[in-house]
Amino acid sequence: MLVKEIMKRPFAVERDISLAEAAELMSEKNIGSLVFLSRNKIKGIITERDLMKNFGKHDKISHIMTSKVVTVNPDETLDKAAEVMRNNKIKRLPVENDGKLVGMITMTDIMANFEALEEDFFFG
Questions:
Q1: What superfamily would CATH give domain 3-123?
Q2: Dist. CA 17–CA 34, nearest whole Å
Q3: Are the C-beta atoms of residues 93 and 115 closer than 8 Å to each other?
Q4: How confident is the model at residue 114 (pLDDT cuts 50, 70, 90)?
Q5: Which of 18, 51, 63, 111 is the Cys-Cys partner for 58 at CB 3.0 to 4.6 Å?
Q6: Are 107 and 123 in contact, with CB atoms under 8 Å apart?
Q7: Mapping DSSP to helix (H, G, I), strand (E, B) and coil, where does residue 69 land?
Q8: How many helices, marked H, and strands, marked E, lie in the chain?
Q9: How far apart are CA 31 and CA 13, in angstroms?
Q10: In this predicted structure, what is the pLDDT of residue 120?
Q11: For 27, which DSSP code?
């Protein structure tokens, strides 16, 4: 199974919003992360955990976001996406095609499609 078959719509912001605005948006959309874009390029990602750890310490998402964002191509397999997540110790993976954000995949999405993963990924 390919990433593009299960990826979800990504949520992105194109301005440096406050942590409170990010929390409100994430709550409203029921999402666990936001991607920060500038000129359609990924500049960072912020997660619920980032917000919880930094609320009251910083005011803007650019101060706490992860700027070295790992991405995956929509034509990669779920096995490859899971491997990227495991190797980078992350739970959310933006999907990029030709340098543009086109989706988001989470470890929960992958686990929901567990039967599509190769057995040797976990047991090999």
A1: CBS-domain (3.10.580.10)
A2: 11
A3: no
A4: confident
A5: 63
A6: no
A7: coil
A8: 6, 5
A9: 13
A10: 44
A11: H
DSSP 8-class letter at 64 = T
Identity at 94, one-letter amino acid code: P
Query: Which amino acid type is present at position 102?
Result: V
pLDDT at 10 over 80: yes
Sequence-distant (6+) residues with CB within 8 A of 33 are 11, 26, 45, 46, 47, 48, 92, 104
Tokens of 92: 């959310």
The single-letter code of the amino acid at 33 is: S
Domain ranges of the chain: 3-123
Q: Record the tokens describing residue 13, joined without a space.
A: 């912001």
As given in the structure block, the two tokens for residue 112 are: 């929901």
Please tell me the pTM assigned to this model: 0.85
pLDDT tens readout for residues 36-92:
999 889 999 999 999 999 988 888 999 999 999 999 999 999 999 999 999 999 999
